[in-house]
Amino acid sequence: MSAPLTLVARKPGYSGGLRALLYVFLTTMALAWLVPIGGAIYASFRPYNETKDKGIFSWPDSLGFANYRDAFKQGDMAKTFRRSC
Amino acid sequence: VSTAPPTGRRRRRYSKLSGSDKFWLSTMVGIPTVIHVVFVWLPAISTIILSLTKWDGIKLGTWELLGFRNYWTIFTVLEDKMFPALFNNFVLLVWLSLCSAVGMLFAYLLDKGIKGTAIYQSVFYMPVVLSLAVVGFIWKSVMFSQAQGLFNLGRDRPIDFVGNAEKLFTLHIPFLDNPVGLSKNFSALLIAMAWRHIGYVMVLYLAGLKSVDPSLREAAAIDGCNEVQSFRRVVFPAMKPINVVVLVITVIEALRAFDIIVALKEPVGTSVMGVLVKKNLTGEGGGNVGVGSAYGVVLLLLCLGFIVWYLINHYRENEL
Q1: Closest by CA position to B88, among listed B247, B261, B246
Q2: CB < 8 Å to A40, chain B
Q3: Among partner residues B112, B119, B139, which is closest to A13 by beta-carbon distance?
Q4: CB neighbours of residue B117 within 10 Å
Q5: pTM here?
């Protein structure tokens, strides 16, 4: 008895090397996509003088929420939040 | 026996709607109509009227009728600003179309049963939740900044990406005195805009690809289509509704570009039509409302041209 003939359509997708290449490409692009916003978030945790002297893309001497505290107090963020609501 | 229709007293028209039905119907149609007329038609028509006048925008009633002199001003060398701005809008349109293609490619690749596709999708989509003004600020300080930006990292002489109005290329258009061209800082802004636009289009196409019937792809594969053929001849045409949405979004984004440029304090060489409108409408000691409105009307006509073209195509196809 012969096995029944079946037509198997290829699943959409790649195999082997092509698939690895796809992952490399997508991961590279995703990392590149994160740089601008990641840089902004990273800089938000460092004192401005430090960013000014050493640039955004450098090891931090100090990290903290001082910028957020200032934004909340001096920038009166509670009020603007209420307005946004 | 006469077959002529009765001509005597008019017959009362038969209506299925009761009195309260009619009331609610007219209210439900009336309120949106009033809102639409007040917030869309009134400003549009008053812009057209104001474009024919000279007015500082401060005191009502101080306008004087000029006829088409404002248009004469903006279309000739008296104010040599419109054609560079229009050219920038055109460059933006070409560029955003390219970005749409890239977004489509991303969506296509992410639709291949990738592991962790949700993570990739979120990363690419993330800039879309930011307004273009915020995108401008982020790129200006993180990427383009002369002191700390990524693109200036390790350069001895940092490049002023946002300030450099040098032209990358110029075009001499026969009847214009000055050549139009793409300035370096505008192309820097284009990259920032791409960051946002690609994610936007990607999400739309992801939805579009999901809606394509898998049996179509299967049939194409069985018929011996290779991947490119299957996409070009089967999948892409099947996504027509999404293609139309993306086309409309791309054109609208290119024509209405405004916020990122104003947020970066209108660098020289990056003006687009929206910026010209704003620049003339506002200003110290009153603006130049007539000229600003004239720019606005030109922009309106461009949009209308596109919409009319789209509607004609749309209805012609649906008739067949």
Answers
A1: B261
A2: 138, 141-142
A3: B112
A4: 15
A5: 0.84
